Amino acid sequence: AGAETVKRAVQLDAASRFQESLVCYQEGIDLLLQVVKATTDEAKKHHYRQKISELTFLSDGKYHKQIRIEENATGFGYEKLFHEYLTETVSEVWVEDPYIRQVHQASRYSLYNFLRFCEMLVKGPCKVKTIHLLTSYDGGSGKSQQMSALEEIKQSLSNYGVTLNIDFSSSIHDREIRFNNGWTIKVGRGLDYFKHPRGHFSIGYCDFDLRPCRETTVDVFHTKHTKKM
After folding, report:
1. What is the CATH number of the domain that holds 109?
2. If DSSP states are collapsed to H, E and C, what string results for the chain?
3. Which one of 60, 86, 109 terminates a domain?
4. I want to staple 216 with a disulfide (CB 3.0 to 4.6 A). Which of 1, 28, 120, 188 is the partner?
5. What is the pLDDT of residue 226?
6. Which residue has the higher pLDDT, 150 or 139?
7. Which structural domain, as residue segments, surrounds residue 184?
């Protein structure tokens, strides 16, 4: 399986389909790492480690894609935006967003947005086991609601075998999402790039693909992802 995945990666690379090739390279590396752990033959271990080093070099962080989401554009639900990077090897996710706060702000449904993002991770095809959230405390009376909502999300995720680690920072500003397969997605507005729905029974309230967006920029990077061999 690893050999076929690597072969596919090389073919995609040659066809200048760099995004798809990087996904295949990473999957090939993960499959070969599993072989290294399983084999007791030192000569084979050495061979596979050399091959992994070569593949890591080929897939090493030289990819950058930018997506421009226009004002009122639709079709940018979380599944559509992130599905290409959520391969089966993803088991850990980092979310840094200072505004995972109240649900009652005029144009922000940030806590619900974070919940929706977590639902996407639970559905797969990735096998997420740990989600790390770094955000900032809500001010005043909103803090208790924020803490209560996040605790409820945490408990609900645990029913699906997923651990949510929550940390707070008073200086966090940037927004980004990282997957442990080497992909980093930076959304200018974080998870809150959707417009407020016109009503609780309006099209787009439940299906984010139909929800109009606010203008923002999405930057996708791939960074060198190394594991202990």
Report:
1. 3.30.870.30
2. CHHHHHHHHHHHHHCCCHHHHHHHHHHHHHHHHHHHHHCCCHHHHHHHHHHHHHHHHHCCCCEEEEEEECCCCCCCCHHHHHCCCCCCCCCEEEEECCCCCCCCCCCCCHHHHHHHHHHHHHHCCCCCCEEEEEECCCCCCHHHHHHHHHHHHHHHHHCCCCEEEEEECCCCCCCEEEECCCEEEEECCCCCCECCCCCCCCCCCCCHHHCCECCEEEEEEECCCCCCC
3. 60
4. 188
5. 35
6. 150
7. 65-225
